[in-house]
Design a protein that fits this description.
Blueprint lengths: L1 H4 L4 H8 L3 H8 L6 H13 L3
């Protein structure tokens, strides 16, 4: 998991891309996200080198 390798908390990762902490946690638990949220999460993963 890119967030874990970067040693970021869910709150830090969420703040980095303007998402809610609970959304990051939900996606990590494999719950669905909207297309917009998915795009932002992909941007976060790319920024973290994942």
């Amino acid at each position: 998991m890119a967030r874990g390798r970067a040693k970021l908390s869910t709150q830090e990762a969420a703040n980095g891309v303007g998402l809610r902490k609970d959304l990051i946690e939900a996606v990590e638990a494999e719950e669905p996200a909207t297309e917009s949220e998915t795009a932002q999460i992909k941007d976060l993963i790319a920024a973290l080198g994942g």
